[in-house]
């Protein structure tokens, strides 16, 4: 089946997160969007048996700061994955391009360097309406999708055994 929207996931296909620990970092910019995504992510982790005390929520000023926050969390804690939530809306200047480029590359680098999943739940839209449509509106909730992706990546990591001495 073609998969275009993890918000429509079949819950039975999502691994349990029991005993796993997650950090969620959400940007303060565009809070009407990021707050809804954050709530969607928390609710989804809870639905999949992650206990409340195993979900740590952090805030950063803007989407650009997600990279530093994710790196600090992974250097200082033993969480299994970090879900990064942000919303960048195209404006009149080139700020949009710089932020989107920096955060997508930055989060990829952090994940590879720290060896744990860093989930890109960042909306990059032309308008606020497009963002709202993806934060609990007609196109689902990218926070929910981020939580599903995190649960799947943590389970994947658990399933890959070391054949080469670490
Ligand atoms: C500066 C800025 C602009 C113009 N737009 C957004 C946005 O749409 N979404 C967002 O999350 N953050 C924005 N920011 C703030 C930057 O992410 C960052 O916080 C500042 O440039 C300070 O480093």
Report on this model:
The chain has about 170 residues and is α/β, with parallel strands linked by helices. The chain has one domain: Lumazine/riboflavin synthase (Rossmann fold, 3-Layer(aba) Sandwich), CATH 3.40.50. The protein has 5 helices and 6 strands; from the N terminus they run βαβαβαβαββα. The protein has helices at about 30-45, 65-75, 95-115, 130-135, 140-160; strands at about 20-25, 55-60, 80-90, 120-125, 135, 140. A 4-stranded parallel β-sheet has the order 2-1-3-4, with helices on both faces. The protein has a two-stranded antiparallel ribbon with strand order 5-6. The relative contact order is 0.22. The mean pLDDT is about 95. The structure holds ligand DLZ. Ligand DLZ binds near residues 30, 65, 87 and 89.
């Amino acid at each position: 089946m073609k998969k275009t929207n993890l918000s429509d996931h079949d819950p039975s296909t999502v691994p349990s997160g029991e005993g796993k620990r997650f950090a969620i970092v959400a940007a303060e910019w565009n809070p009407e969007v990021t707050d809804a995504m954050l709530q969607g992510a928390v609710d989804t982790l809870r639905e999949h048996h992650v206990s409340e005390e195993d979900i740590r929520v952090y805030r950063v000023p803007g989407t650009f700061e997600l990279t530093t926050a994710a790196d600090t969390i992974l250097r200082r804690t033993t969480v299994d994955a970090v879900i990064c939530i942000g919303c960048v809306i195209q404006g009149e200047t080139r700020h949009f391009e710089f932020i989107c480029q920096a955060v997508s590359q930055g989060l990829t680098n952090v994940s590879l360097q720290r060896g744990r999943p860093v989930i890109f739940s960042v909306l990059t839209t032309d308008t606020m309406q497009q963002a709202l449509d993806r934060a609990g509106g007609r196109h689902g909730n990218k926070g929910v999708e981020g939580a599903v992706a995190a649960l799947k990546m943590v389970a994947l990591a658990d399933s890959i055994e070391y054949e080469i001495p670490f």
